[in-house]
């Protein structure tokens, strides 16, 4: 299938597919006239790329998943080669959360010092967060 057909089948844009190709995540074949040609398995690959991007991974991070992007990673186990990438990204998210919690505490304290106790009390209790 050509690039427009893949974009339609995968629910994305031609522009996104060209970006994935530029990042080394997709490698189309070329027809004699230079058109990009994709096999049907590329729909799964694109779905996996989109899933990983939605999890907060970057295109560079996703390169660790290249050996398993053709498999349905949403339903199956994570590739062993990619576990380190996920662990690193999770540590970065945890660091950001800790920094935001510190900033939040400082802002609540600043409100209290400014005489806005009612506003500060409304924000003192940390918001409930789900962890998984």
From TrEMBL:
Signal sequence interval, chain numbering: none
GO MF annotation list: DNA binding; DNA-binding transcription factor activity
Record-annotated HTH merR-type domain positions: 1-68
PROSITE patterns with a match to the protein in the record: HTH_MERR_2
Alphabetical list of InterPro entries matching this protein: DNA-bd_dom_put_sf, MerR-type_HTH_dom, MerR_fam
Alphabetical list of SUPFAM superfamilies matching this protein: Putative DNA-binding domain
Organism: Streptomyces radicis
Keywords for this protein: DNA-binding
Name of the protein this chain belongs to: MerR family transcriptional regulator
